[in-house]
Design a protein that fits this description.
Strand content: under 5%
Largest sheet: none
Mean pLDDT: 74
Distance between the termini: 37 Å
Radius of gyration: 17 Å
Number of helices: 5
Helix content: 40-55%
Length: 119
Amino acid sequence: MRILLTVIPITAALIIAACSPSQPSVPTAAPTAEASTTTTPAPGKSAPANPALGSPEWVAWVDKTLAISDDGHGPQPDTPAWEQAVNTKLGQEAPQAKPGTAEWQQAVDALLRTRVATH
């Protein structure tokens, strides 16, 4: 019984921590040339540092990570057809929020950052 009482709070804490949005610890300042180079990931390696959700950089990263437009043969990035293709690629993990909304973008970002970090 003691083990169960210990495991449940730890599990709950981990779930809450995983679902909580992270706040950047870097103070907001004017971007420098060095900072702008860190937002572009190495091919297939990691997510960009912190592009604004929905920004062209973020859309390009999602597109490349999921291979949506695959050499220009898929839907135009950041369109309803592209958002549907993102959901299709994510499969059962696809966010339940309406595609294109801030909540949808946040969920897609979190899913992809988790996938990139574990691969």
